[in-house]
Structure formats: C-alpha cells, structure tokens
Amino acid sequence: MTAFAALHRPGTPLLLPCAWDHASAFALAGQGFPAVGTTSLGVAAANGLPDGASATRDETLRLALTLGSGPFLLTVDAESGFADDPDEVGEFARQLAAVGAVGVNLEDALGPPGRHAAKIAAVKRAAPGLFVNARTDTYWSGDGDPGETVRRLDAYREAGADGVFVPGLTDPARIAELAARFDIPLNILLSPAGPTLAHLADLGVARVSLGSLLYRRALGAALETAADITAGHPPRGTAPAYADVAALRGGQ
Length: 252
Known about the structure:
The chain is α/β, with parallel strands linked by helices and 252 residues long. It has one domain (3-250): Phosphoenolpyruvate-binding domains (TIM Barrel, Alpha-Beta Barrel). It has helices at 3-6, 22-30, 40-46, 57-67, 86-98, 113-126, 146-158, 172-181, 197-202, 213-230, 242-247, and strands spanning 14-16, 18-19, 35-38, 73-77, 103-107, 131-135, 163-165, 186-189, 207-209. Strand 6 (131-135), helix 7 (146-158) and strand 7 (163-165) form a beta-alpha-beta unit. It is globular, with a radius of gyration of 18 Å. The two termini are 28 Å apart.
C-alpha cells in the first residue's frame, strides 16, 4: 500500500483540500495537510478557460510539475482525462506520475461507462502506482439513479480503480450503503448543506474532498474585502502577512 492509499481510512477519512496554484498548495501543506489535490474549476478559471471541457490539459500538467516535488502528496483532478482515447489518457497519467503526482481523479461526466472503465485500465497499465479515484457524475449532473451509480462504480472497480467518488451525493443513508458495499475507499464531496466531516466519518467515508470550495471562498473573500473598503468599513476576515506569502515561493 502506498503512503497516499494508507491515508484513506473508512471512519477516519482523509480530508483533501484542493489548490489551484503554487501558493495555495504550499500554504495548505503548511497547515499540516499531508495531501493536497487540485481543483479543475480553479485551474480553468485562473487561466480563463472553461472547466470540464478538456481545455486545461497543458495547464494541469504544468501545475503538477510545479507541485509534484512539494512536501505533500499530490493528487490531480484530470477531468475526464483530456481525451476519449484510453491510451492518450494513460499517457497523460504517466506524465503526471513522472512529475511526482501520486493520484489522479477521473470523472465519467456521464459518458459511456465502458469507455471510462477502459480509461481507468489504461491508467493502471501506464502508471501502476498512481491512485485512481474513479468519479461518477450520476448525482453531480445526472438524475441520481442509485442503480446506475452502483453499475458504474462496479465497472470502474473491476477496471482497477483504487477508490470511487460520487460528488453531489448528500443523503446519509445512501452514502452509508455505498461505503459498506465497496471494498475500496469511498470519496464524498463536502457540501456546506450536507453531512459534516464528522458525520461522513461515521457513515464510513474514507476520503472527503473540498473540490472548488476553497477557490470559490477565496474569490468571495476578495470581493467582500473590496466591497468593505469601498463602503468605508474595515475589511472583514484575516489575511496572511506579506512576508508569509512571499516565503511560499521557496516552498516553506
């Protein structure tokens, strides 16, 4: 078992914050997070590109190159692999592993489950040590059909996925059923309106991702600060000192 896989413990889940650049990743690592993910929305928005449209392949690889040697375990949100051809997805995964990533998140975006399973298998052939978190979008952008969710996750597990991810699922009973059904880690996206981290732990979840939440909160804080100053009020919240942010350039 790799060090990253060992962090996935049902009942004591890995809380995975997601970064969008060097500073955000190293700042999170400085807070004691042993693993950091990337957020496809954050990477896309920061570069003026659409999310989920296979438009950020180069930017994602460039970020992985920047972060892969950091003092934390890196897992990369690779959307649907940036290609339909499984071999091309496998090659991209090999490149991620070569620059230091230990995991990859692959979403099916409700495409054919057989094609997504083939991508997973190709990744495991090309980069056997990479932890593949196989995501289904049945709840994120589909109709939340429990039967279809299980069929897809079963196929992805059979293809070699190391973990399964169901963003958009917030029903505690359904989460507990999936956690008990699979012998590989279940990943849930934290929803501010859904179960808390402690509740998800009780349900048997092994990994809780923050997705784009931190990026969106950072943008929200910037807008709030600008609005406060415009209105003549002291800015709310806290901000790292200039020197602390400047020090992140050296990976401290």
